[in-house]
Amino acid sequence: MAAPGSDQALLHLKNLYSNILSLDLSRLFVPTLVVSVIFPFCRFVHRDYSNFLALGPGGTPSNFFGYLCISYLRLFTLKDPFTPPPPTTQTDRPAHGFLLQLPKRPQPRPSVAGVAPHRQTNQKPPASLYQMMRTALYDLVSNNSKLLRSGNSCFEKHGLALFLCLCPQCPDAQCHTELLHPGPTHMNSTCEDTGEICHIHPSDSSMHLTLHPSDAALVISKGWGERHPLAGCLVFPLGKRLLPEGFVMVYAPQDESQVGVLKEIVRAAGWWVGGVVLASDSRNESVSKKTVDG
Fold it and tell me: What are phi and psi of 201, to 5 degrees?
């Protein structure tokens, strides 16, 4: 015979089971969903959006619409920005690059984040080095006034950029065929065929530029830069590449001696984009180079 206490306990269990069966589980779904999914997702988006804004202005608007655009573009980014672009298959393009060699960058690679903007998050040089790099770019324009002009970047929509130009765009240009790059479409088109060679970012002093595949491989292997996350990537439904295969970030200079190396890399970009050899100065003669026909 069962004890009275056992019967009462069994009765309570039966009542509890009945209550559970009769409970409207849909009332628990919404708070459970909020706690386990929606709330963590909102925290992630808030943190990710804050990191996007912290990178500063770039090629997309610094607002939530720009953030949504970049979040979509992330679906198409490179798996490894340190993999060099594939060799050129165009028979009318040089098989070899402009740079014969580069010194090894002594510092480790900086941390890099973002897509657009795409920036360094450390190893940011003092303002004096940024100004020195700007001066070096303006020197290139001054030394090549028939071929170069400066202006706001087409890629970034702001910031100092160098462009290869046709005669009407360069005030000092003389329209002699031997002084011009190959026609209005340049040698390799960049950013709506504006002929943009490079641009520099005020927030971190890094640069973006377009290089021959061999030069891009050398820059990456020697620790001077890495490919942009969207370099050569097809974006759907556009069905086109937003950036050239050899679109590379070159890290900010860490001392005065590195400004000359970066200036030579910019000359390599000018050679690849426009098919011209830009005049430099004696400070950069230690870096090996060759002409288009070399």
Answer: -100, 120
Contact in structure between 227 and 81 (CB atoms under 8 Å): yes
pLDDT of 162 higher than 90? yes
Strand partners, 99: 289
- With a cut of 60, say whether residue 170 has pLDDT above it: no
Phi, psi of 166 (to 5 degrees): -85, 170
Rounded Cα distance between 111 and 35, Å, is 33
Between 174 and 97, where is the model more confident?
97
Contact 163, 149 (CB under 8 A): yes
Of 192, 279, 263, 194, nearest to 224 by C-alpha is: 263
Q: Can you give the pLDDT at residue 175? A: 44
**pLDDT given for residue 181 in this prediction:** 40
**Rg of the chain's alpha carbons, rounded to an integer?**
28
Cis-peptide into 85, omega within 30 deg: no
Please check the confidence at residue 154 and state whether its pLDDT lies above 50.
Answer: yes
Contact 210, 269 (CB under 8 A): yes
Q: Which of 291, 246, 279, 215 is nearest to 78 (CA)?
A: 246
Cβ density class 226-240: b for 16+ within 10 Å, e for less: bbbbbbbbebeeeee
Largest CA distance in the chain: 116
The answer to whether 147 and 275 are in contact (CB under 8 A) is: no
DSSP secondary-structure letter at 241? E
Of 198, 200, 205, nearest to 268 (Cα)? 198
Segment 66-86, tens digit of pLDDT: 999 999 999 999 999 999 998
Nearest-angstrom CA–CA distance, 167 and 111: 41
What's the pTM? Answer: 0.77
Burial class for 241, CB neighbours closer than 10 Å (0-12, 13-18, 19+) = middle
